[in-house]
Amino acid sequence: MGRAQSANVIHESPVIFIDARRLQVHVFPQNTEEDMRRGLVAAAIVSLFGAMAPQFAFGDSGAVKVGVLTDMSGTFADMSGSGTVFSVERAIADSGGNVSGKPIKLVVADHQNKADIASSIARKWFSEDGVDVIVNAAGSAVALAVVEMAKTYNKTALVTGALSTRLTNESCSPNSIHYGLDTYALSNGAVQALSQQGVKSWYFIVADYAFGISMQRDSENFIKAAGGTVKGGIRHPLNSSDFSSYLLQAQASNADVIALGSGGSDIVSMIKQAKEFGVGGGSQKLAALALFISDVNSMGVENAQGMNLVEGFYWNYDDGSRGFSKPFYDKFKRMPTVYQAADYSGLRHYLKSALEADWTDGKGIVAQMKKGRIDDFFARGGYIREDGLLVHDLLLARVRKPADIKQPWDYYDILQTIPGDTAFQPLSLSRCEMITGKAAKQ
């Protein structure tokens, strides 16, 4: 990537320590539902004290400063991590390394899948270090904390690495964009595909944090609409190693489908263990509600073959996706995920919008990003709605059998394109105050 190396990009050391004197709050170690609530409370506390402070060192108008806040070594590292950093570097390089002659600077930090650490880093980046936009924010609890910080300091949160629909519903913000996929679109496609195959009853195993909870809730709504039933469900903590008891309990439910609402290394381990225990075979189906190409590669095609999934990006879909993916494969010897494609597309759109709006004004540049269409290799037919959601076409795919794979990473058969306006939650169902409040005034 010669262009990335020659671009005017400055890497700075990540900030990952916690300092109470700087209004940074350390609350909890994991991302359970209770942890998510505490993380949001912590972010609100920091916001309250921040609003009382006499002044802040807001954005450096002499440069556009981009912060990548991601998971570099944990559950979501394959989906985001170093690949996210590379995608952001390429977006900066392909934008010329500057905006209207002002250099683009890059800082990177590992949030360690802890919302309190993410909130602390975001607060310092926004209030002291002049960061204008945070990209990725892998993990829903982390993303919710970052969105709160962006709103507090009038900066921008470009969430490309999280799935919870709460990001554009209860926690929507004029300072944030949810750019990629969400649990509504994933569960919508998965439930419809399986319902068409005659599936009637479901049992859920989901991760006990914002993503898994949203995934089950959204799926249950679609199941009910399709005339199906839910026989029960169980939640597991993030970064689990043994799923045997969860799987056997799900098997005993005799549900037609065991729906798995987990991500990253958790979903990989769960499906591999399901195969070992013979769970999901025969008349009982195993359905991964959020399965990505990095997961398929990690667990092996022999374990994932035949599974239907909804994707926002596939590297071998057309010339545009192949052109984006080749440099990624040359560097990492693996293909990019939907998150890593969204990192590039989202930041390119942000930097183009910065040519027309003040990038130090988070609300202003987010409003600019909502104007017009995007329509690139990732966001086909894409536009950003008033609630901050990127709407774009998705893909319904099926994992191929090992014998049908003719080249590395060519794991999917694309069954159909799902129009964005069909896939994502309609505004009529929005729980976003920017939408419901506007409707109430009319």
Structure notes:
By secondary structure, the protein is α/β, with parallel strands linked by helices. It contains 16 helices and 16 strands. The strands form four sheets. Strands 1, 2, 3, 4, 5, 6 and 7 form a seven-stranded mixed β-sheet that branches. A four-stranded parallel β-sheet has the order 9-8-10-11, with helices on both faces. A three-stranded antiparallel β-sheet has the order 12-15-16. A hairpin with a 5-residue loop joins strand 13 (383-384) and strand 14. Helix 2 (33-52) packs parallel to helix 5 (140-152), helix 6 packs parallel to helix 7 and helix 9 crosses helix 10 (293-299).
Give the structure's gist in a few sentences.
The protein has 16 helices and 16 strands. With 442 residues, the protein is an alpha/beta fold.
Determine Rg (CA atoms, Å).
Answer: 21 Å
Structural class: alpha/beta
For the terminal residues, how far apart are their CA atoms?
A: 52 Å
Number of helices: 16
Number of strands: 16
Strand content: 15-25%
Low-confidence stretches: 1-33, 45-59
Task: Give the mean pLDDT.
Answer: 87
Coarse morphology: globular
Q: Characterize the largest beta sheet: strand count, sense, and whether it forms a barrel.
A: 7 strands, mixed
Considering DSSP H and I runs of 4 or more, what fraction of the residues is helical? 40-55%
Characteristics of this structure?
alpha/beta, 16 strands, 4-stranded parallel beta sheet
Q: What's the layout of helices and strands?
A:
Elements: H1 2-6, E1 11-12, H2 33-52, E2 64-70, H3 81-94, E3 98-99, E4 102-110, H4 115-127, E5 133-136, H5 140-152, E6 156-159, E7 176-178, H6 183-195, E8 201-207, H7 210-225, E9 229-236, H8 244-252, E10 257-261, H9 264-277, E11 285-288, H10 293-299, H11 301-304, E12 308-311, H12 319-332, H13 338-353, H14 362-369, E13 383-384, E14 390-391, E15 394-399, E16 412-418, H15 420-423, H16 433-441
Parallel strand pairs: 1-4, 2-4, 2-5, 5-6, 6-7, 8-9, 8-10, 10-11
Antiparallel strand pairs: 3-4, 12-15, 13-14, 15-16
